Amino acid sequence: MFEDLIKIDEQNVAHGEFHTYSYETDCFTDARLSFYFEVVQEAAGCHAAVRGCSIPEMHKRGQTWVITRSQMEIFRYTRWPEVLRVETWAQEPIRLHLPRVVRAFDQDNNLLFVTKTHWAILELERGRPVRPADMAQVIKLPPEDDTEHNMDMNLARNEPPKGEKLYPLSTFVPNIAYLDTDRNQHVNNISYLSWALDSLPHEFRNRLKVKEVDVSFLRQTYLGENLMVYTESTDENAFSADKPRLEHHIVRTEEDGSETLVWVGHTNWDLRENLT
Fold first, then answer.
1. Angle at 46 between CA 42 and CA 51, to 5 degrees
2. Does the residue 142 lie in any domain?
3. How far from each other are the two terminal CA atoms of the chain, in whole angstroms?
4. Domain match, 172 and 140 both
5. Computed over its alpha carbons, how large is the radius of gyration of the chain?
6. How many Cβ atoms from other residues are within 10 Å of residue 273's Cβ?
7. Same domain (yes/no): 36, 136
8. For 46, phi and psi rounded to 5 degrees?
9. How far is it, in rounded angstroms, from Cα 42 to Cα 27?
10. Domain range spanning residue 231?
11. Where a domain ends, among 149, 176, 194?
């Protein structure tokens, strides 16, 4: 079944196609950022499934996949009903993470986005990480001499610019809905980003689109928890700028009143016409 959705070549690179459906576009018929992240999630999931290590299969072994870091650079947003040609592959483990690259092209072979992700394998019962070396053998990596499919996956620390004042821009209280949760019973990674974007003014999002995003998933969250989304910037007038950088973080309020940072990242924006 999964072999019909994605094909793996002799270099251990998986290939598939994804359609830009109308319900995955915004009010300008441009693809939503969340759609690109859904493509990344689906391509990775299908690749793992073909190799016999999908999340349902991992659960049978008492393990699961979780994403801890995602960094995406966007060159253009597709429009309905364009087709994306997607390729993905895993790379050599870095400590407790198995890195993965997903990139997409349009039908003229122009690059649409490149995403670098770090994945971890956790034991379901204890939540402890499992070293990914064995899993790298299962998924199989591109050959060392395939320079096109061997990228630098040592991502820099994800934090705001040092030594600069941050101005608060917006806060947002998300309602964790049933469909925000995934097969691991925790909030899906895409929901965090969607909440951060939902916290921004409509006029800002009508004018600009995200060009780069870099987010880190620090703690799992679940239905019924109390979360708050914060957005800041070193530019107090960022919402009126043409190429702003926004800093985002999500905090959970615990039962004892303390706060736990669960998600952090930043987005770089550009004028909509430059990305569509």
1. 150
2. yes
3. 34
4. no
5. 19
6. 9
7. yes
8. -65, -40
9. 24
10. 167-275
11. 149
**Whether residues 10 and 139 fall in one domain:** yes
pLDDT at 4 over 80: no
In a domain, 27, yes or no: yes
Q: What is the pLDDT of residue 261?
A: 96
Determine phi and psi for 157, rounding to 5 degrees: -60, 135
pTM: predicted TM-score of the whole model, two decimal places: 0.95
Per-residue model confidence (pLDDT) at position 235: 97
Matching residue, tokens 């997607």: 86
Cis preceding linkage at 81, omega within 30? yes
Q: H or E element: which one contains 44?
A: helix 33-50
Q: What 3-state DSSP class applies to 232? A: strand
Alpha helices in the chain (DSSP H): 33-50, 55-60, 133-139, 189-198, 202-207, 272-275
Backbone phi, psi, residue 16, to 5°: -155, 170
Name the residue among 203, 189, 199 with its Cα closest to residue 247.
Answer: 199
Structure tokens at 66: 């979780």
Q: How far, in Å, CA of 86 to CA of 113, rounded?
A: 10
Q: d(Cα 7, Cα 149) in Å, to the nearest integer?
A: 16
Question: Do the beta carbons of residue 266 and residue 272 sit within 8 Å?
Answer: no
Q: Determine the 3-state secondary structure of 250 from DSSP.
A: strand
Report the domain count for the chain: 2
Structural domain contains residue 162: no
Amino acid at 243: K
- What is the maximum span of the chain, computed from C-alpha positions, in angstroms? 55
Two structure tokens written together for 174: 């998300």
> 8 with 87, same domain?
yes
Residues 95-141 have pLDDT tens digits of: 999 999 999 999 999 999 999 999 999 999 898 999 999 999 999 99
CATH classification of the domain holding 247: 3.10.129.10
pLDDT(207) > 80: yes
